[in-house]
Amino acid sequence: MTTLTEIFRTYSPEYVARYGDDMPAGHHKALQAIIACRTSVYGMTVYKCRTCGQVHSIFRSCGNRHCPQCQNHKTGQWLEAQLERLIPVPHFLITFTVPEGLRPFIRSHQQAGYEALFSASSDALKLLARDPKFLGADLPGFTGILHTWGRQLKYHPHIHYIVPGGGFNKGRSSWLSSRTDFYAPVKALSPIFKAKFKEQLNQTGLLDSVEAKVWEADWVVNSQAVGNGAASLKYLAPYVFKVAISNSRIVKVENHTVTFKYRKHGSRRYRSLSLHVLEFIRRFLQHVLPSGFMKVRHFGFMSSSSNICPEDIRQRLGKEDENPPPVPPESQNPPHGPFCPDCGGVLIFLKSILPFRKEYCSSG
Questions:
Q1: What angle do CA 122, 124, 125 make, to 5 degrees?
Q2: Claim to verify: residue 44 and residue 129 sit in the same structural domain
Q3: Which pLDDT score, from 0 to 100, does residue 73 have?
Q4: Secondary structure of the chain: what % helix, strand, coil (to 5)?
Q5: Do the beta carbons of residue 83 and residue 19 sit within 8 Å?
Q6: Residue 30: which domain range?
Q7: Residue 69 lies in a domain
Q8: What does 206-218 look like in DSSP terms, one character per residue?
Q9: What stretch of H or E contains 339?
Q10: Do 236 and 259 share a domain, yes or no?
Q11: Neighbours of 203 (CB within 10 A)
Q12: Which helix or strand (DSSP H or E) is residue 51 part of?
């Protein structure tokens, strides 16, 4: 199977030679990390099999959040943590999307563009949540996840919010519940979202960099009721750690052309798309996030700074024992690995051999 790492190792020198002077530092860093992942560049970890006693040495991973080899195992851990935070109220999946004409600007100003996207969308949600005509909650809560790619790796920045249907009054003494099928009107959210995004760009001095027709277009906000929220979390969890394309989707590479498979929205049938390898690399790299940028953010009572925990809300609702977070039995919750390639037993860490310095860090 052809992997993203193999493509980068073979063709990134050509890509860098052609576009290197214009590449952001983060793109260079991501390429170098993915190419060197699980090689001697990052050192080696030594394990011993708990079952058969065989010793195994495994090259260390790069840990870059855009590397397909380093992120998959984190999805389950994140999902488990979020499911434990669920409260027994209706949930909504609310998605904010910018017009196509704004995408080139955001791609060229990712730090400012993504910050404006988070700020404008979260402020719009807070504003309507406080409106007594809808919820009237002074402290709503929600979690936002930035997503930048489409199924063909095209640039499509948008934010998904998982929104519990309720919030606290101004004194934090009462919980106010939303309807089970309605949180806030999207027809009102859209113009507020647009206005706040424009205001944000004006404050950063970037407003003149955006074409005027962007502000004349309709901005799309979608809202749907999703029950208790667990299904939405399971749907969005892969996007938290998933990279723009996985190795399993790459079909072949030949004649400077990468062919990969994808599915159209609402279809189960796979289709294939072929791109020149340099265009393939370009599409992948445009989804590399600015260094240190947080793509998952919690707001309101979902934020750690609110000092409100899910148990407090469950008690206020009188549902502290209703639908408790699932705790799978040990037999259904196997170790994450790594596993012995000889017998399948669990590998126990012995020591790490750090790169270059050849220093040892023993487990004792």
A1: 65
A2: no
A3: 66
A4: 40, 25, 35
A5: no
A6: 25-64+329-362
A7: no
A8: -GGGS-GGGGTSP
A9: none
A10: no
A11: 11
A12: none
Of 83, 82, 88, 141, the closest CA to residue 319 belongs to: 88
DSSP per-residue string spanning 215-261: GTSPPEEEEEE-TTSHHHHHHHHHHHH--SS-GGGEEEEETTEEEEE
Same domain, 208 and 133: yes
Separation CA 218–CA 190 (nearest Å): 8
The SS3 of residue 34 is: helix
In a domain, 191, yes or no: yes
Q: Rounded mean pLDDT of 252-281?
A: 93
pLDDT of res. 167: 93
Tokens 């590479």 correspond to what residue? Answer: 253
CA triplet 283, 289, 295: central angle to 5 degrees? 125
CA dihedral sign of residues 203, 208, 209, 210: positive
76 within some domain = no
Give the pLDDT score at 78: 82
- CA separation for the pair 231, 283 (Å, rounded): 29
In sign, the C-alpha dihedral spanning 234, 240, 242, 243 is positive
Within this chain, do residues 174 and 272 fall inside the same structural domain, yes or no?
no
Asked if 116 and 238 sit in the same domain, the reply is yes
Q: How many residues does the chain have?
A: 364
Tell me: do 155 and 257 sit in the same domain: no
Question: Which two three-digit tokens encode residue 101?
Answer: 């004409």
Same domain assignment for residues 202 and 145: yes
Same domain, yes or no: 230 and 109: yes
Asked whether residue 8 is domain-assigned, the answer is no
Distance CA 307, CA 88 (A): 19
Task: Render pLDDT for 322-340 as a digit per residue (tens, 0 to 9).
Answer: 444 444 443 344 556 688 9
* Number of domains forming the structure of the chain: 3
* Residue indicated by tokens 């095209």: 154
Question: What is the Cα–Cα distance from 262 to 291, expressed in whole angstroms?
Answer: 28
- Quick check: helix, strand or coil at residue 132? coil
Q: Where does residue 267 rank: exposed (0-12), middle (13-18), buried (19+ CB within 10 A)?
A: exposed
**Of 191, 40, 162, which is closest to residue 89 (Cα–Cα)?**
162
* Geometric angle at alpha carbon 65, from 350 and 96, rounded to 5°: 145
